[in-house]
Structures are given as structure tokens and as C-alpha cells.
Amino acid sequence: MLTFEAVIYLLCVFTSALCAWLLISAYLRRRQSLLLWSAVCFTLLAANNFLVFADLVLLPQLDLSLARSLTALAAGIVMLGSFIWGME
Q1: Burial 5-16 (b: 16+ CB within 10 A, else e)
Q2: How far is CA 14 from CA 18, 53, 70, 79, 87, in A?
Q3: Second label for 14, Cα 20 to 30 Å away, from 25, 45, 66, 71?
Q4: Taking the model in full, what pTM does it have?
Q5: 11 pLDDT exceeds 70?
Q6: CB 43 within 8 A of CB 15
Q7: Which residues contact 32 (CB under 8 A, 6 or more apart)?
């Protein structure tokens, strides 16, 4: 049975995946680069949230902290890079 924390982790996965899907659909309509990079960022955040769920609920015996940190770092770099290069 899922605990309250597990449900919250899954809700975070679904929320960030929904945001990524909405951003992708908006990008396909408008073709603005900031929408694309935001969608990539939220896709990476969804992956990060799934890794948190997997690390703490599904596979507590494994240490997935490095993978979690790398996906969070990649999401931040993508978003920051899109802001920097989007200013030109």
C-alpha cells in the first residue's frame, strides 16, 4: 500500500510531466524557443521526481542520489541557458 509520502512523490511526477506536455503542445503551436527549453527543463524535472520516488519508495536499498542530483542540475542548466541565450 502506498504511503502518504509516496502519493505526494507520484503527484509531483505527474504534475511536472503534465507541465512538460503542456509546454510541448504550446511549442508546437507557436514555435518559440523558450517554450521548447522550458519543456525540456520540465521533462528533466519529471525524471528527477521519478528518481526521487524510485530512490525513496521503490528501491530504498539503492542510492540514486547521484542520478537525482544530475537530473536536477541538468534541468537548472537548461533553464538558465535558455534565459541567457534567449536574451540575445
Answers
A1: eeeebeebbeeb
A2: 6, 12, 20, 20, 31
A3: 66
A4: 0.90
A5: yes
A6: no
A7: none
